[in-house]
Amino acid sequence: MFQHVLEELRPLKRFSAWIWVFLGVFALILRFFLSHNVLWVEQYYSKTVFPVIRYLFDFTTGKLPFAFIYLLLFLLVIFFVVKIRRIIGFKKSILAKLLYFFHLLLNIAGGLLFFFLFLWGYNYLRIPVKAQLGLVDPVLTVDDIKAELLRVKTLAIAARNTVTTEDTLVAFGEDQLPVDFEEHNKKDIIQLFQTLGYPTPGDVKARQLYPKGILLRWSTAGVYIPFTGECHIDAGLHPLQNVCAGT
């Protein structure tokens, strides 16, 4: 029986059958090597390879009128269903089918790992912005913190007294924000980094993610997904929070 199963698994002996597993392992090995050469990460990945990836996203998925994550998930579901049906349809033993399924999971895991690291993950190894720009944390005393809290509290109370309704969406809704407020905010941030000599390649899109609360349930308002090249913010956020979370 064992010999029969090995015969059924003959297609898995090909190198191409394990390509995504090998790429995933290669990406991990490369990460280990780069973790000991952070200057290489800065020079060859973050400032050379990644900007190209960023611009490719900008001129492809960035042109879509909707979040690419929906289309990507749809395509992945179709791919997975087709693969599972194909495995079930094999005229092979149950054990062989289970091993083919395990092989599929390994390749998917390897592919996800490879693309995550290649499309974004190696940036986690780069020299922190604080170190590159020579920023120094200010030394704050308790009195400094109390004074700042009092100042902000005074401004907040004054601002709240100008609101004549308990409904904050009515008091300050999206229609009251300046046109292209997010773009203005983004432009100011880019100008600041460029003034400091820090590269800002590409134009990351901030897409609202539905259903509302899908990210807030995970205690986050927004997330960058490397597989789509887009920033995603929870659709349940207040308009004012959208601007902050998206930039």
Rg (CA only): 25 Å
Sheet/helix structural class: mainly alpha
Strand content: 5-15%
How many helices? The count is: 10
| Low-confidence blocks of residues | none
SSE order in H/E notation?
A: HHHHHHHHHEEEH
Tally of separate domains: 2
Helix fraction?
55-70%
Strand order of the largest sheet: 1-3-2
Alpha carbon gap, first and last residue: 60 Å
Biggest sheet architecture: 3 strands, mixed
Average the pLDDT over all residues and give the rounded result: 84
Q: Based on DSSP secondary structure assignment, what is the total number of beta strands?
A: 3
Gross morphology: extended
Architecture blueprint of SSEs:
Layout: H1 2-8, H2 19-34, H3 38-58, H4 68-89, H5 94-119, H6 129-133, H7 142-161, H8 168-171, H9 181-195, E1 206-209, E2 222-225, E3 230-234, H10 239-246
Parallel strand pairs: 1-3
Antiparallel strand pairs: 2-3
Structure notes:
The chain has helices at residues 2-8, 19-34, 38-58, 68-89, 94-119, 129-133, 142-161, 168-171, 181-195, 239-246; strands at residues 206-209, 222-225, 230-234. It is mainly alpha-helical and 247 residues long. It folds into 2 domains: 2-127, no CATH class; 140-246, no CATH class. A 3-stranded mixed beta sheet has the order 1-3-2, with helices on one face. A hairpin with a 4-residue loop joins strand 2 and strand 3 (230-234). The chain is extended, with a radius of gyration of 25 Å.
